[in-house]
Amino acid sequence: MNQSSNDLSGSVTGPVVQAGHVGQLYLSPPAPTALAGLPPAVPEFTGRDEALRQVTDALRPGSDAAPVVVSTLTGTAGVGKTTLALRAAHDAVDAGWFPGGVLFINLQGYDDLRYVGPETAVSVFLSALGVPDELFPPTFAGRLSLYRSRLAERADRHGAALIVCDNASATDQIRPLLPGPPLHRVLVTSRHTLADLPGSRIVDLGVLEPPEAAALISRTLRMRRSDDTRAQDEPEAVEDLTALCGHLPLALAVVASILAGDPDQTVGELTAALRDRATRLEELTYGERRSVTAAFALSYARLTPDEARMFRYLSLNPGQQVSVEAAAALTGQPLPQARKLLRALRGVHMIEHGKPRGWVRFHDLLRLFAERRRREEDDAASIQAAVDRLLAHYRDAARDATERIVAAARQRGRDDEAERWLDTESLNLRSALKLAQRHGRPAMALPLAHDVSWFLRRRQDWAVGREVCDTAVEFAAALPDGAQQALALYNLGDFLKHQQEFPQALPVFADALARYRELDDRTGQARTLHSMGTAARRLGRYEEAECHYAAALPLFDALEDHRASGHTLFNLGYSARRQGHHEDAQDHYRRALDVYHRLDDPAGLARTLHHLGHLALARHRPDAARGYWERARSAYEEAGLPQYAQEVTELLDR
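Predicted structure:
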């Protein structure tokens, strides 16, 4: 009987053979591992100190009971997520934090042709961990179990490993790749905010700060050619260039490559080429693979039709940011649906949060991309309808805000919400007027112009307000509506009056008055005459002022506008007093007092009594003056005007 045995010693890897007699035995060598395949870090890496610190802290080994296993770098296309991830990964490896090695994969999450699903990714990682293809389990569940088992073995034998998943587009693409042992760490980059990824810490990545962007240009040029001093020679041009790139790292890398490839081109020349909005995206291309437009297009391709339409239509808004209400108007959708679409676009970093909460805004280059897509995909009728809805929204919302502010002021209060809305939307409202001009919509924009000029007058924004008033006059001139023309002229004159440009205001008021007389509009005539009187009075032309006020008074009386009649009587009294017509002044002031008594208007009473005191003193009646001023002080206090009460007290003391 023959007996045989196999005696092996040492470490055995691979198939085991047992037989009675083997002539020659060939054992396959162990499958190689690929646990140092991390791509090189970008040498031009600049800035990002805070974001790098956050990622590094999450990767650092510690004794926390529940460490952060996954760090997710999120941000728009071209913002430098991969660059930062590689920098952090190399720093961590160099520090010796991952003796178990590094697994790296580009998941191509936004490229439909090269998309890497979790099944493929697990197979790639198994090969990297040294598992021969022929030993892969036949099912995905089996391969997944083997993948996690190998990672657990690696943790026991070698220590922590780092898994870098670049360019993921969904949580489902990442979740199967998460390791079992918490000792390992995972670093993910994505244009989506993967808020449902278990155990993850999100690091939002924005564009570079202006100094960092300039440093990136300078560092790249000096690295390509050590004697390249263009960035140092043209610092202002570099600043302009980075601003035109929106401080987006991909765009900055493109322009740096363009400059490095053409050492005779100045920074200023390239900056001039980028100033044209129509061609800027085309200019931001270098070679076949480095293109800002191509990066944006991959993100855009993954939007739903409704999300893509919202993205395109948002670019119609003329201001820097858009409210949810304006976005709903643009797309003609209910507010909840618009809010949902904006949330989805923020989640993929196609738009950003604005200020305050509830507004969103574009990165400058993404806005250009949205405008291009809109021109390519949307017909003129659809665009015009969207513009009309947007203008109607701003017109109605501005009217509502101004009416609320005026109503609150009449109650001696303040509507803070309406005030904040006007402050936030100020630029949008002004820009909407220019949008209306471009689209030939004067009738829709004219009411908006009136409210915007009113708001700017309250803020004493004289230069911009004057421009808005002039725009309103142009709008009105384009309409066959004399009432609108008269109102636009009156508002311009009123703005000039508040600006204390009285000589310019008077002829504008005269034009408005002529139109109101043609229309037989007594309200417009009365209001314009009163304003003309005030402008003349402020110029010291008291006789002229008296004439205007005297013409306005019977109109206000006929209209039964008692408050306006009281103000006109007061101004008649002031004009007469300044001319030395004391008897007439006394009569006008007393009639004004009667009106304010009937209206129960303590402020009007106080002001009139105050001036009656001055008149009495001019007529050498100090006791009467004291009596008026004592009554005026009480009325000012009742009206809640302590500063004027103090002024009267000082008169009494003297």
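Summary: Confidence is low (pLDDT under 50) at residues 1-5, 8-14.
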